[in-house]
Design goal:
Blueprint (H helix, E strand, L loop, with lengths): L5 H14 L7 E5 L7 H13 L4 E5 L33 E8 L14 E8 L2 H9 L6 E5 L6 E5 L7 E5 L6 E5 L5 E5 L5 E5 L6 E5 L5 H14 L5 E5 L2 H6 L5 E2 L5 E5 L9 H10 E2 L5 E5 L10 H6 L16 E7 L3 H13 L5 E6 L11 H14 L9 E5 L7 H7 L2 H4 L12
Parallel strand pairs: 1-2, 2-3, 3-4, 4-5, 5-7, 6-8, 7-9, 8-10, 9-11, 11-12, 12-14, 13-15, 14-16, 16-17, 17-18, 18-19
Pfam families: LRR_At1g61320_AtMIF1 (PF23622)
Protein name: FBD domain-containing protein
Length: 432
């Protein structure tokens, strides 16, 4: 729709589809706000795609795309309700829906070959979700995000092939029940609940857990239940987890099979400080850990209280743990404070077989101006790191400047379906 009104966009797309004579449409993706005026045309487009055996269908009807000439949002219009014939489409293998009413018919015959399903900001009830999943016997990947009407999420996957599950921003889901013997990767982020049941997950290998601060005092046992459920994973990401690190004092966990650990701050927030890393390893045992990534806080420039917040963290006097298998460490957003350098000293003294330590400077240091005093400080920090005592004889230390490729937040999320299957807007749209 860039540079076009809704009418112009609709007219142009109608012309394109009229000229398209192929019998098969493999993929059909549309990002459009039809409001009330163009809902009929929208359903006709879906009909064209489904009638030609579409395999991959991505429909995004977010309201934010409707701007009038005064650059103000239109008044709210009726939400798009999906046509019944969509659910009788037997060719679909990948379905992604955003900002619409599912309108699921009670009896439908399609979606038998569906392998991936992503529902974001969808009006769907718990009974509709169960009805939908019961028909998708080949489903391998499921993403549920921002579905406010899902007060109860029940996923009993013993009858189908679910391997990847992402639940994020389902803020009204008070109860979650999951039984999935084939699940390998699980993401639970910013979803507050009162009851959490996660069993029959012997195949789980990778988990990302994002801690919500909402109602934290009432749900700390739930947070620990989630973490305990991931105690046998090989790859674990704790996202925004300073609260969780403090919980471990009360509920210690042993990760028997953990090979890779990532401690990540939420974008725009700073939740994990050096003290939180000590707390994690003081109360968590990771006997087989091989790879560790830590994202230190990166406060915005206007935040003048960062050092005060860091010093307010509880002091951890001693941490009795071993890193007998730890080979690689990556620490990003490194600013060279004494507490951060002490954290590196801690790992260099404990990791006797460490092979690689990668330290990524904070974005604040990223500059090509050689006269910049910040860069001179960066050189001093680099020199100090190389002079630190090391328990490992074969370690290589790499100090590099910040780049977007070193953003652990993005890296860990790209490994999960929350990044791969939720809708990405074109660069000319900038929304929160």
């Amino acid at each position: 729709m860039k540079g076009q009104s809704q009418s112009e966009f609709t007219e142009n797309l109608n012309k394109i589809l009229a000229l398209h004579v192929a019998k098969k449409i493999e993929k059909f993706h549309i990002l459009f706000d039809p409001t009330d005026m163009f809902q009929l045309e929208t359903k006709e487009w879906i009909q064209i795609a489904t009638s030609r055996g579409v395999k991959e269908l991505n429909l995004d009807f977010r309201r934010e795309l409707s701007y009038n000439f005064d650059n103000k949002l239109h008044s709210p219009e009726k939400i798009v309700t999906l046509p019944n014939f969509l659910f009788d489409c037997k060719s679909l293998t990948h379905l992604s829906l955003s900002h619409c009413d599912l309108g699921l018919p009670e009896n439908f015959s399609g979606l038998r070959h569906l392998q991936t399903l992503c529902l974001r900001n969808i009006h769907i009830l718990p009974s509709q979700l169960q009805n939908l999943l019961s028909q998708c016997q080949l489903l391998e990947s499921l993403v549920l995000g921002e579905c406010d009407h899902l007060y109860y999420i029940k996923i009993l996957a013993s009858c189908f092939r679910l391997k990847y599950l992402s639940l994020f921003n389902c803020l009204n889901a008070n109860e979650i029940e999951i039984s999935a013997p084939n699940i390998r990767r699980f993401l639970l982020c910013r979803t507050v609940m009162d009851i959490f049941t996660f069993d029959n997950i012997s195949s789980l290998e990778e988990a990302l857990i994002g801690v919500s601060q909402n109602r934290y005092s009432k749900t700390k046992d739930i947070h620990m239940a989630v973490l305990a459920s991931a105690s046998h994973v090989k790859v674990l990401t704790i996202y925004g987890g300073s609260l969780l690190c403090h919980l471990l004092e009360e509920f210690p966990v042993t990760f028997h099979k953990l090979l890779e650990l990532q401690l990540v701050n939420r974008p725009g927030r700073f939740d994990i400080f050096s003290a939180d890393v000590y707390l994690f390893f003081k109360h968590c045992s990771c006997p087989l850990l091989e790879s560790l990534s830590i994202e230190l806080p990166h406060p915005p420039p206007e935040c003048v209280h960062h050092s005060r917040l860091e010093s307010a963290r509880p002091k951890v006097e001693s941490v009795d743990c071993d890193f007998n298998h730890l080979k690689t460490i990556k620490i990003s957003n490194f600013k060279g404070t004494d507490t951060e350098i002490n954290l590196i000293i801690f790992f260099l003294e404990k990791a006797i077989f460490l092979e690689s330590l990668v330290v990524v400077g904070s974005q604040s240091y990223h500059s090509t101006d050689k006269e910049n005093p910040m860069n001179k400080s960066l050189e001093d920090i680099r020199e100090r790191l190389f002079q630190l005592p090391k328990a490992s004889l074969n370690i290589q230390i790499v100090f590099c400047e910040y780049s977007e490729h070193d953003d652990i937040s993005l890296t860990c999320l790209e490994k999960h379906d929350i990044a791969n299957q939720t809708h990405q807007l074109p660069s000319y749209f900038e929304f929160d």
